[in-house]
């Protein structure tokens, strides 16, 4: 198993060095897949890695080149051999979901980590990515800010699905090219082109700062601050027993200083919660101005509410009808026993496009593609 982990770690690190985005969670999925396939069948291994590492079409050439180099060593006569499965080809014993971190840690020494902590293994960053927020301290928060800044940077480089006129590279635009030819007597001197522009995400974040969210709110707000740096139009609101716009207070300074300012300025910070009343206030005061058909609304809350659920459902319906998507991030979802049956969560659920966990860095990393849609 250690040979397989080390080889996968080196392959993933080489992909990242070539500019291919590979998440820690994708590596865990790849490891589970590899112990199920016949490692002697290169085509089977290739497809398993391509699927689990989520290789996009633009990255396919880099993937193919590195795969041929690193997984075909034995056939090339280099003396190295591909790793073998611990129980033979087609091993039916899968790596349990909870065992993935330990399996990755088996890589141990050489090749187990890279500068910056992107490779698996027992590197400090790999452990921090999976550490639940409710077990983190102030030192963890400082380290997480650096990781969050790198993760959020990917949001600033995602390209829109739209095609717009481009000056240089891009796909040919026959219609505009022919119109341009009219000015040169019908001679096609140059092709007009279109490309997918880099488009900043439009986000509105509503963060529950009640007592039940206290262990998670500081880390989720650090995530929001990182997003705002790369998506400047992001608007942020805190809510507990009432709603407060906190966007102006998130800029500059250390995270702990920002949290201290918010705790002093936001009424009932770490107190009770009335989600329905707070979201209704957002709808009445800010929905028309802050949310349009291209805005993703993100609600960070455990959904624990004793207020008016009819009010909550009505506010959620209006937000859902106006926004591009509504994501609800609930830290309690990391517990497999959790069911979204609390009164507040149950009332909101019909108007949520995706309910997702938000209990550690790895869960937040998986959400970034959702924010750019």
Per-chain topology:
Blueprint: H1 2-17, H2 24-34, H3 42-52, H4 60-70, H5 100-105, H6 124-129, H7 138-153, E1 164-166, E2 171-172, H8 174-181, E3 193-195, E4 203-208, H9 214-230, E5 235-239, E6 243-245, H10 255-265, H11 275-285, H12 287-290, E7 296-300, H13 309-322, E8 325-330, H14 343-348, E9 354-357, H15 361-371
Parallel strand pairs: 4-5, 4-7, 7-8, 8-9
Antiparallel strand pairs: 1-3, 2-3, 5-6
Helix pairs in contact: 1-2, 1-4, 2-3, 7-9, 11-13
Considering DSSP H and I runs of 4 or more, what fraction of the residues is helical?
40-55%
- Helical stretch tally: 15
Q: What order do the helices and strands follow?
A: HHHHHHHEEHEEHEEHHHEHEHEH
Structural class: alpha/beta
Give me a quick take on this structure.
The protein has 373 residues and is of the alpha/beta class. The chain is 43% helix and 10% strand.
What can you tell me about this protein's structure?
The structure is a single chain. The protein is of the alpha/beta class. The chain has 15 helices and 9 strands. It folds into 3 domains: 2-109 and 118-122, no CATH class; 164-195, no CATH class; 203-371, 3-Layer(aba) Sandwich (Rossmann fold). Helix content is 43%, strand content 10%. The strands form 2 sheets. It has a 6-stranded mixed sheet. Strands 1-3-2 form a 3-stranded antiparallel sheet. Helix 1 (2-17) packs antiparallel against helix 4 (60-70). 36% of the residues are buried.
Keywords:
9 strands; three-stranded antiparallel beta sheet; Rossmann fold; single chain; globular
